Every structure is written in C-alpha cells, then in structure tokens.
Amino acid sequence: MENFFDKSLHFLGKTNNTITALNIGSMDGVMFDEMIGYTNMYNFNVLYVEPIPYLFDRLKSNIGDVGLFENSAISDYDGEIEMITIDKEVIDSGLIHSCFYGMSAVYPPKNGLGGEGDRLTVEKYGKLVKVPCITFDTLMDKHKLNNFDILKVDAEGHDFKIFKQIDFKKYTPKVIRLEWINLSEQEQSEIIEIFKTNDFIYEISGQDIVGLPKYFYDEIFSSSKPKNNIIKKTVNTQNNVITIVTGLWDIGRGELQEGWSRSYQHYLDKFQQLLQVDVNMIIFGDEELEKFVLDNRRDENTQFVRRDLSWFKNNEFYDKIQKIRTNPDWYNQVGWLTDSTQAKLEMYNPLVMSKIYLLHDAKILDKFNSEYMFWVDAGLTNTIHPGYFTHDKVLDKLPQLVNNFHFVCFPYETNSEIHGFKYQELCDLVGKPVNMVARAGFFGGKKDAITEINSIYYGLMNDTLSQGLMGTEESLFTIMTYKYPNLITYSEIEGNGLMGRFFEDLKNMTVEVKSEVSKDVVVNNLDTSKVGLYVITFNSPKQLEVLIQSMLDYDKDFVEKPKKFLLDNSTDLSTTPRYIELCEQYGFEHIKKDNIGIVGGRVFVAEHFDETDLDFYYWFEDDMSFYPKKGEVCRNGFSRYVDNLYQKSLEIIQKENFDFLKLNFSEFFGDHSVQWSWYNTPQDFRKSHWPNNPNLPTQGLDPNPPKTKFDEIHIHKGLPYITGESHLSNWPIVLTKKGNYKCYLETKWGHPFEQTLMSYAYQETVKGKIKPGLLLLTPTEHNRFDHYDASLRKES
C-alpha cells in the first residue's frame, strides 16, 4: 500500500519547517477530519474553510487562534450560494444519528443527503441556507497567500468545481486530496486528465483521490515507482487480521409494491460504496457481479466466489422454506407479513437464511488466512454512512471488541411474532421471555468460532423449519444469542434497530459487550475515596516534578484526591531538601530510605499500604509520566488519553473485583499481547503450561513467545478494558488491599526481582487466586531524562 496522503504529510512535516495547507470543508476541524492530527504534530499553517455558520463557530472554537479562517463556500463565482444542511438542534438532541453532523452540501446535494437512503431524514430535518461563496483565487487573494503545499477538499460533490480552478502554472501544490465518491464519472475523468497533464501521480483510495507531483512522489517513494501514473486502490492495511464476507444477487425486489420495493441498481450503488472499504473481502455472487467487483477492487485484497441463485435452490432447506412461505396460516398471522419480502419473494429467505453458511464457506475458502471474519450486508451503506468504514476505519477496532462471536441486538417488545416466527414458540426454544432481536446486517467474530456457530445454526434451522416455524435469519440469531452465551456476545442498539448506533459507538470505543451468562458479580465494598498514591524516586527531584506536572495536565485527580507518599531511595543526599519542598508543595508524605532498590522499594510500599486504612493505591516510578495529548495512539493503536482516568480506573477495579488493574497496554520493552511471565516462570511450569513453547531462547527474546490469554473486553464510561492473564510488573498499576497482599505479601522472598514477582503472580492467576485486569489504553510513557550511573541501580 502506498498511502499517499499519510506518507506525504508526514514527509512534509518532518522535512519542512513551514507548510501551508488549505482545508476546504473543514466542518468543526475535528470530527471526521484527520488533518487535525498532522496539524497538531507538525504545526502546519492552515487556512480553514467552512461555509455553514454553526460549524464555522465550532471550528474556530476547536482550533483557537492558530490558523486562518474563511466562512464561505468555494465555488466558481463570487456571491451567494444555496446549501442544504441538517439543523444542528436536531443532531444535538439525538433525534437523528450523529453521522449527519457536517453532511452539508451545495443544493441540490450529490452526497448522502441526496441519496434515497437518507431521503426521509432530509425531507423532515433538512434546512436550506444561503451562504457567501467565493472563487479559489479570491480565497487566496483575501488571505494574502501566494502558494500552498497541501490542498484537502471535502465539499460533498462540489470538489471538482473547486479543483478545476487551480492554475498549476501559478501554484505548485505538493499534495491534493479530493473526495472522489460523490463526483460524476465525467468529473472523475476530467480530474484524472488534469493530473496527467500536470505530471501528477495519483491514487484512488476509499472515497478519495490523492495526487502528488511526480518529482515529489519520487522523493518519497523512490523505491516503488508506478508504471502508468496510477495506483488504482490501496491494499488491505490490517495484515490479514480482518476479512469481510458479503454477497449480492438480484432476487426481484424492485418488482414489489411501494414500501417494500428497492431496485437492484440501488443495491449496486450501495454495494459500490462498500467496495471502497480497504480491508480484505470475500464476495459471493454471479458472473455479472464478478465483473462489477473487479472494476471496483484490486485482486490483492479481493476473493470472488462465483455462486448464482441456483445454489440457494439446491439445498435441503429450499423446499421447506417455500412450503411455509406459501402457507396462508403463516403469511396471514400478522397484517404486514402478507406483502413482505419474505412472503412475496421466492428467493428472499433462502438467501438471507444462508448467510451463516456463506460465512462458513468463506472460512474454508479464505486465501487471506484471516483471524476474524465478519458478514456485512452488501447494501449496508443504505442506512450506515460509508465514512464509518472508509474514514473512521471502525472495522480495524473489531479485534479489540470481539472475543469469540458477536451479534448486534435491539429491544423488541411483542406477544405475537418476530419477523413471522411465532413468539411463544421462540420463547420456548430460548427458555425465557425474549425481549431483543439480533440484527443480521453485520455479525461475525473469530475465524476459529465459525464452524461451531455454523453447526449450531444448521441444527436450529433444520429443527425449526421442520416444525413449520420461520421468521428470517434474525429469528435464529436471536435464539442463538440467548442459548449460547459461552460462544456469543452481543451489544445493544436503539429500539429503531438502526445499526448506525453500533458503528458510532465502535468509532468511539464505547461499545458495551454483553452476554446472557447468568453470572452474579459481587461488587466489593471497598471505598474509592480511600486511595493512596505511591511514587518511588531516585536522585532526581526534577523527575518527580515532571511526573507530578504530567498528572496535573492529564487528570489532576491523581494529585488532588489520594493520600500521597514519596519513597525517596536517593543516595545523593543533596537532593533531600528539594524533595522535601516538593512534598510540602503537593502534599506528599516523605519517606526516606537508603536505596533499598526498585523491587525492595516495591515490597516496602506493599507493606506500608497494608498497614494503612486505605482500600486502593496507585504505584508509579518517578520516570513513568503521563502523556496528556488527546487524539494520539500508541504503537499498538490504543488511545494515549482518556478523560477522568483516575475515577474510571477505580470504578473498574471495584466493579470487576480485580486484584490489580494495569494502566498501560504498551510498555517500554514490550506490551501485553505477549505473556512476559513465560520468560520468568520455573521450567517445569513452563513445560506443563506451555507445551508448545517449553524452552526459552538461548539468547535475546523469542520471536514467537506465547500470547497473553484474554477473556472478555468491556467498556466503562468510554474506557475499554480486558479481563484475562495480564502480567504483573513495576509499570503504573492500581491495586486493592486484598490484591496487594496476594501479589506481594502472602509469599515473601529475601531479595526478589521483578521477574520473581511476575512469575509468582502469573502462577497464582492461572490457579484462579489472583484476578488481574488491563486497560486498553497507554496513558503513560517511560521518560527517564535524568540518568544515573548503572552501578547505582539496585533491584532489592
């Protein structure tokens, strides 16, 4: 994958001191706009252009006084222009989905606001406004700009009118990105011709086209020059972790009466949007669809399986489905069912009720060696904004969410039927009242789980159809969600059943993962106001000062709320007066020791805390500072910042009865994807517990050590965390009174090392005696700037 936009902006930021960027269609400068990340990192000089007044006000508030601003639309004349937008009060109140935030467009709209899927929303909540408009040259003259380096245009279908005004003899841009998906074929062709005429290399990726002058492209990508000025699509970025499975067939839905009718062309249009998603896809369909797919995808991340409609007729369930479908007792049981797709269309239920089988076939045929596979309906972008997939890349976050197999459910109250499946019979199959339904437009999980899910589904479908019971695939998915909580988790959306809620929550990592397991979680009676903060320090008051300031910048509760203790291990006694000053300034109790070592100090802290009346404590070394930069992620893709971390982490450890909760997924030498305890446990335990990895490497780190065994991901107030076998270490952690005793005091060693404590805690975790937790977050970093002689370092 070339990834023109990302690599070129990083290249410019690292090699140039002064970069000018034009951000046309800035919206609020933050939401749906990744430019903010590059701007913050490299201090680009940016001219922000946004025509909608309320968005412009939020833009200026979000950006502050570090840019230039223009509250106009850019068009091919100076004057006024009519635009359509969604009233901000409607969005802010939650009446419609937040994906409409910023979906304004010049009227008549070419973007989602002009699509059939959003027609009712636009008719009800759309608002026409007149705004000033100016030409591109007027924009440049008004803000006294002679040139620019980066142009990013997101003008919802008006992009070509802006782009064609650029005089390439007058201006010398290095990066141009335009929104591609909403342009006509004619406009797309003209853009390509302009790029070629001006010797630009271009890449079509997702919903955008990005062009770079050839000389600049060569400067960045000198080792991989393209042959014909084009790289058609980018290749999968997920390293074969995720594969999407889908399919599309024309079953005649366009012939149904109004309300049920949708043309096949409508589905093709929506499917084309889905095909822009930059992940691996396995696609089922007929010969005509294969041609369509190959026109819109690259071979490298696409596997097409030719399968026409006759395949759905030639299975053992087809006749059973038709027998029920044509039975008046079935289709007359409720008024809406008579004219529904499942009653009127011969192939509707045979197709939709085969999604699990197609997913299982995809697992068998998979050329990508995927870890996770998810079914996505070909027409899902009819109700889900495609930006979730192409811009927000929410699919990349699924491995953090799904532990086995996952459905999305919505509340459903009835006493008659669910999708035509008799309600009482469905409850009898489940064994309790059913009050939710599992959606079928999106589902899936770990590849290893699919075979078992397929087997369960097959048996359930055979049994229910044989009894004359039929709804749709959602009826069966619902039964499975209730009956197999050990295999299936679910998350809930709103009662309207629209999947947009799930993808919005996934974008923000606020999805709550649930299951129907009857598990009585006894919440302990510990008091989250009785908390200690322990910091161990050595020969550097400045390190302590920087740590405290990082806490104040990140979440001042870490300094203001707990009872604070400083374990001063320093051998340089000239530092003592300054340590005492800092302790007095910030309210620490100063505990002076004569270098009892890092782990020696760690055990001392455990003993000291055990004597207090506190219920929890946080542990920090003085060089493990917080990283208070919002919007950034660690090397493993986890956020560096979350608000109210102090209180949320306490609530999580209390709620889950954890003995300890690690704050960092990524640490200095490694991360929690690897089970570091493997290196430190006794050889007999290693051989019995990890029979496939019984021996340590002769030197260095093993390239294939055992992975950490995790159980479930949960989210508490927007903060994700995971249960399982997280290792104990000296990185920032919060412990309970009981957890502190079990980890450090129940068994004692004369002179333990960190590895000793890690090994012991892991073996106790495997026995079920210690329960650890881990935040899916990386809020701190190793920041030792005041170094000391290695001979002074002691473990215990």
Q: Using the coordinates shown, work out and report the CATH topology of the largest domain.
A: Spore Coat Polysaccharide Biosynthesis Protein SpsA, Chain A
CATH class assignment of the largest domain = Alpha Beta
Mean pLDDT: 86
Helix segment count?
A: 31
- In the predicted model, the low-confidence regions spanning at least 5 consecutive residues are 94-101, 110-118, 223-239, 518-523
Please outline the major beta sheet: 9 strands, mixed
- CATH-level-2 architecture of the largest domain: Alpha-Beta Complex
Q: Which secondary-structure class do the elements indicate?
A: alpha/beta
- The termini sit apart by 49 Å
What fraction strand?
A: 15-25%
Q: How many discrete domains?
A: 3
> What does the radius of gyration come to?
30 Å
Helix fraction bin: 25-40%
Give a count of the beta strands, DSSP E runs of length 2 or more. 33
CA-based shape: globular
For the biggest β-sheet, the strand order reads: 25-24-23-26-31-28-32-30-29
